[in-house]
Amino acid sequence: MQPAITPPPLSDWLDWPRERVARWVRSQPRPVVMGWPFNGTRRWYVLHRRANPDADDYMKTLIRRQAQQHRSVFAHGVGVIVAPGFGADLLRRGSDYTRYVLGGLLQLADDEIYQEMFAHGVRLRFYGDYEESLDTPSFRPMLRACADLTAATEAGDGPLLMIGLFADAPYRTLIGLSVDFARERGYPPSRQELIEAYYGLPISDLSLYLGFAQPALFDVPLLATGQEDLYATLTPSPTLTEKQLREILYDHLVTRRVPEADYDALSDEALERLAEYNGRFHGATLGVGRIDPLTGMWTPLLPAPA
Prior knowledge:
Layout: H1 10-15, H2 18-26, E1 33-35, H3 41-51, H4 58-75, E2 80-86, H5 95-102, H6 104-107, H7 112-119, E3 123-127, H8 130-133, H9 140-153, E4 160-165, H10 171-185, H11 191-199, E5 208-212, E6 229-233, H12 242-253, H13 268-280, E7 289-291, E8 298-300
Parallel strand pairs: 1-2, 1-5, 2-4, 3-4, 5-6
Antiparallel strand pairs: 7-8
């Protein structure tokens, strides 16, 4: 079956088999590049362990859940996942905690779902200043794991998974790459040339970015253009459902692509509806929250349902 030429209704889109959704997504003029930091994981694991007392340890459980989610996203036709991971603040939490968290890099190659994905052509790359940050006796095994995974998946012809490590302050690196490029070529790099130098291969502009809780965009150097669509889940990233993912992709590829309204041509009925909407949500702001007095966690203030 050929991909649909015109957008399907959302109700049909939600019922399509994954393969049909993927064909339609891949038929679009640009590949979907999805920024998705996997956040809220400790909050998720506390409740996961509460419901599953015999669950594996945090890191093993998290790696498996992340693999399941990445597999689902790729199965829906997304071409690239840019996944910001750890920043420099991780090193300030103590060596034991840092070794434990970074030890997850050693488990990626052992997870059966990731093994299956790599066998089917998924490529894995790392970006950021991780080579400098991990070049110590304690962390060199993690550094070797990054190199081994990159080499093992380099020949793949499938989607691309980019994991960001210490990409929160890329400025010195970008300056150095620009200077080296200009010295070798005799002219400064274009944005695309600098992207390829930084990430190690060409990557298209960021299409959408899916955060958690407080809306924020971070650790995707050079890829953001201001044209990407921003989303945020209200529960931790590991809880993303297939329906949510499809709604996000539909909103990004279909709903937000509708041309801007001709305000001078709005009917009286349309103006009445616009006035009713503005009145109902007057004073409401997406992204404003409060600290829950029981959990001590930030939660969003959501408008009351109509």
